[in-house]
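I am writing to request your help with a piece of structural work I have in hand. I set the record out below, with my sincere thanks for your time.
___
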Amino acid sequence: MDHEKRIVIKELNALLRGCEMGVSGYDKFARDAAEPVLKGKFESYKAEYAENANSIAQRITALGGKPKYNTGMAGVISDVSYAVRGSDGHEAPELLRSAHYGETKSIDATERALSAPGLDDESREVLRRQHRGARTRQEELIDLIRDFDLG
């Protein structure tokens, strides 16, 4: 396997970890949200991340790599931070802000991956879909934050 392909696989695996964190995060948010509209929105976002993870894993396999399913140290730190905040941090505005922060991190990571050397067209398209989805979710979350802050 050539050097550029290994770099692409490494970037895709980093995004796969990010998608796994998205699935885990939105699962917690849906479980802890009191408002039915937020539960539904978070479940929908969780499903999008699961679909993205599947697409990325398929692409890694097609390139001859092995998908690495785990959230790594960042996931552990995120879980601990969420648990420490306890129920005070699980009100709608806090959940929405946490979700927005996660989408911002997803956008940043995807933009970094899109600049990886040797990125083939199919991998680029998988990354662009992830990027578009994260942007859309981020915009929706901004609207929800406004609604809950004003409501």
